Amino acid sequence: MSTPASTRVIDRLKTDLSFQISVDTDSLPLGLAVAEAALGAGVDLVEMGTPLLKTEGVKHVVPAFRARFPDALLLADMKTMDGGGFEARSVFEGGGNIIDFLAIAGEASARNICVVRDEYRRANPELPRLVFADILLPHQGPADTAIEVALRMLDAGVDGIGAHLQLDARRADPSLFHSSYLADTVAAVHQRVGAVASVQVVGGLYLEQAIALARAGLRAFVISGNLGLPDAQARYTSPPAEIREHIAAFIAGVRAAV
Fold first, then answer.
1. Contact between 232 and 52 (Cβ < 8 Å)
2. CB neighbours (10 Å) of residue 222?
3. Residue 170 has what pLDDT?
4. Which of 112, 131, 227, 258 could form a disulfide with 85 if both were Cys (CB 3.0 to 4.6 A apart)?
5. Count of alpha carbons within 13 angstroms of residue 194, beta-carbon side
6. Helical spans, DSSP H, in 16-57
7. Rounded CA separation 76/16 (Å)
8. Burial level of 29, CB count in 10 A (0-12/13-18/19+)?
């Protein structure tokens, strides 16, 4: 089932440019500060990152973000591999809008998470509740494989797809980060399913890559710790004004290109 509130968000993410900040810090106070700076720079979604959720705990982080940012769209990047319904319940109960799980967990996990999503949609139709499946690259590549995974996830009921170049993989092989691998894969996925689902691109994305993808039709971009700069340096401890400046420049650059 869907609701008008959820459908509005899904439609907006498919058609309008959107920008998400990955808050991959290891402490809640720093995470809240990064999120506040990112919202001030114009991001549309705040991602409570996996390191933050695991270090500080879902039942601690999600309500704290909801209390601090009552009107923000909050996504929990759970990287769920099993027990999806249980984890989804924790996210939605704490006030999260979106749960992101690993597509490699399979259709059973996807369906279980969507069952819980629908339960919360029925309980409060005014709140958007969404499920995103994260296709992990290069493990679920190349493009043909990623497309097949995306189609299976959509058949299982998810609302959005992410193509995610794994952090460990791009650190082990820096050429992946600077190659066209991520862009080519996510563009192929978007061409196949972009008419029916949001397709996010994730994984140390920098401005030049994002501009090329936006011109190819992509609309949903995730800003990692490099804050859109062409390196792998995490900048979460930078001064808030500097974080805002980098993110605002990324958003402005992508918007100017389309």
1. no
2. 25
3. 86
4. 112
5. 20
6. 28-41, 50-56
7. 21
8. exposed
